[in-house]
């Protein structure tokens, strides 16, 4: 898939000035950000980072949003202490940087996050959400794991052979922007074809008209069209989680 082999990083977009409402902790040596709802719950969501890392305020904003809607939400540092990508870096070094950051190898970090949610937070229903790199990690989890009841992948397709893309073990929602240079529409069509051919669980693919990569968490609402797409994608995520958890 071209998104897996993209030679340049996605744009950071609009970085939020956001202080976050959760807390940081270490689980098995992995840094994590945890946000909890006001009312106790047994439902937990593992959120996977984009290339800009676990301290990116935009992603923490989404974690807090999920928690405010009734889930214990945890955001692990999937890069396990390695430096995330920075917009200040030389783009020619991106391929070298990403060699050690394979979303298909998310499972050790996922195990740590899941274990914490289950053992320390009393969670017995699990879902996963991810953005960009993390969207690919969500897709990988839906294909490779059976502990998540559902997943939502924002602008990410797993680095799998095409015939494996549709072999989901749990319901998956895939959200893309129409004008995403990282994931061209032909890749989205390949995903839809493989899901239709192979998937035995519920799935849905939404492409938001005119939207770029990262729109749901890294784009300002500059006009009514932006606001409708951003709010629509976030609401779609929440409804999917509610439906299956």
UniProtKB/TrEMBL annotation:
Coarse class of the primary localization is cytoplasm
Kindly list any coiled-coil regions of this protein: none
InterPro entries attached to this UniProt entry: AB_hydrolase_fold (IPR029058), CMBL (IPR042946), Dienelactn_hydro (IPR002925)
Sorted alphabetically, the keyword list is: Cytoplasm, Hydrolase
Q: Which Pfam families does this chain map to?
A: DLH
> Dienelactone hydrolase domain: from which residue to which, for each copy?
31-244
Name of this protein: Carboxymethylenebutenolidase homolog
Q: Which family, according to UniProt?
A: Belongs to the dienelactone hydrolase family.
Q: Where in the cell is it found?
A: Cytoplasm, Cytosol
Q: Mind listing the GO molecular function terms for this protein?
A: hydrolase activity
To which species is this protein native?
Branchiostoma floridae (Florida lancelet)
Q: Which GO terms describe its cellular component?
A: cytosol
Q: Which domain of life is it from?
A: Eukaryota
């Amino acid at each position: 898939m071209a998104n897996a082999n993209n030679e340049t990083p996605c744009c950071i977009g609009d970085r939020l000035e956001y202080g976050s409402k959760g807390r940081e902790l270490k689980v098995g040596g992995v840094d994590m950000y945890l946000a909890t709802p006001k009312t106790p719950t047994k439902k937990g969501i593992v959120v996977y980072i984009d290339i800009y890392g676990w301290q990116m305020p935009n992603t923490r904003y989404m974690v807090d949003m999920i928690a405010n809607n009734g889930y214990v939400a945890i955001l692990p540092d999937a890069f396990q202490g390695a430096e995330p990508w920075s917009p200040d870096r030389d783009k020619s070094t991106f391929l070298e940087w990403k060699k050690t950051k394979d979303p298909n190898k998310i499972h050790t970090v996922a195990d740590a996050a899941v274990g914490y949610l289950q053992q320390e937070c009393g969670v017995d229903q699990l879902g996963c959400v991810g953005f960009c790199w993390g969207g690919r990690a969500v897709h990988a989890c839906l294909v490779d794991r059976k502990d998540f009841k559902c997943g939502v992948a924002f602008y990410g397709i797993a680095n799998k052979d095409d015939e494996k893309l549709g072999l989901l073990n749990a319901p998956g929602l895939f959200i893309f922007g129409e004008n995403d240079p990282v994931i061209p529409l032909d890749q989205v069509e390949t995903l839809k074809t493989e899901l239709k051919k192979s998937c035995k669980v519920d799935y849905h693919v939404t492409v938001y008209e005119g939207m770029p990569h990262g729109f749901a968490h890294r784009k300002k609402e500059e006009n009514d069209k932006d606001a409708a797409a951003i709010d629509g994608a976030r609401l779609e995520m929440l409804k999917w989680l509610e439906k299956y958890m």
